[in-house]
Amino acid sequence: MRYKKWTLEQKLEILASSEEIGIVEACRKYSVSTGTFYSWKKKFEYKGEAGLKVTYDTKSKELKAAEEENRVLRKLLSDKEIELEVQRELLKKSLGHQIQERFSRCNL
Fold this sequence. Notes:
Transposase_8, coiled coil, Transposase, Homeodomain-like_sf, Transposase_8_domain, mainly alpha
């Protein structure tokens, strides 16, 4: 089953027509369940038009693209940091052996 996405104007129209022709008839006319209708009515009575505004997909495409790019860049940065840490550890080990060898030669 596919869900219909209603605009603010459509919701207001359905609420207004329910006062004229009745709730059951308005729900039948616009193919809206009574549960959905009463949910809209409750939100409208509580917050007015702001309660009926569409809350899904509030992020713009540009913002979503920027967030995705940010995620990718953070991953690359963390991979580079891990790689640098491994290189530092290897450098410490190799320099540690060289320092120990020089120190042992000096003490002889």
